[in-house]
User: Fold this.
Amino acid sequence: MEAIALTRGVPPEEALPAARIGEAFAAALQKNGAVILQYGNIGGYPPLRQLLADQYAVTPAQILIGNGSLHLQDLFAATVVKPGDTVLTEQPTYDRSIKTFRRRGAKVYGVPMEADGLNLELLETELKRQVPAFLYTVPDFQNPAGLSTSYQKRKALLDLAEKYNFWIIEDVPYRNLRYRGEPIPLLREINPAHVITMSSFSKLISPALRVGYMVGPADLIARVTRLAEETILSPVLPTQSVVAEFIQRGWLDQNIASLKALYQPRLDAMVAAIRKYLPDVTFTAPEGGFFVSIILPETANYANLLERAQAVKLSLTDGTTFFADPLPAQDDSVKDRFVRLPFCAITPAQIDEGVRRLAELVK
Assistant:
């Protein structure tokens, strides 16, 4: 029996443009080796900062490049969170973000998600009780749920940030991996006043490059940059120069097109397998990204699911890790029935077989 992993959201080997990464690094060394091999500009590799500034129509002073977006979430939280502060997230949300914010002293509460984004009624009830240091959202093809926030809810969320005066982190690493449908404007594009935009090139080029970035007001970026300098001394200029060269050569757009062609059939296979083998689960089919999630019915056999799955060579992730503390009076028992199903790293045939095995386990 073949082992099948429905665990981490990672690109498969065939998605990694190794030859072009090598060529880009060689070209960057030839052009600018004395710069990229030295201690450098703490805000990031200047040509890449300029490319990102042009993309977001801001100045380079509003850009900080770091070692992946999680690194920047940590630096941002360390800058704005005081011990005991509240941070709000979507419920469920990226598990490592929950851990990161807690490590910086925050109490992290999750606001339940609906098919089109946060439950804004519950959010405002919580905002009346206490204003958070910030709210963390993944508005496009969310990890872990795969959901996207509608335009109407993005606008309403920005109105709440204006009314109650709190920051919003919009984390958008999957935004460019849209396989169907029309893109929805970034929160920043609607109203940037309270928005910190974060993203990375991990899903678009290579996770090991560890190149992420944040966009925000210049004064806040300066504060986070000072902490970055105290923490890491210097950015990793070689990998940042690879990304800059990759973009300048027009390869990023080409790579994204190749990734879409690779991943869309895998998303289609996952949705088809869920509908075939698990017709009673609750789920929303995403239009892009890396993940589909399901909520098993209360009647399902979900006790000790991870251990029983291992016995049939199926690896799953503990769904409870994606849940922050519940809001007051909120029932969080759904977390025991939550299953994240990444689809990008395995073939359509493996997806079909993996979901079939899962369905047998929860009968």
Q: What stands out?
A: The mean pLDDT is 97. The first strand starts at residue 4 and ends at 6.
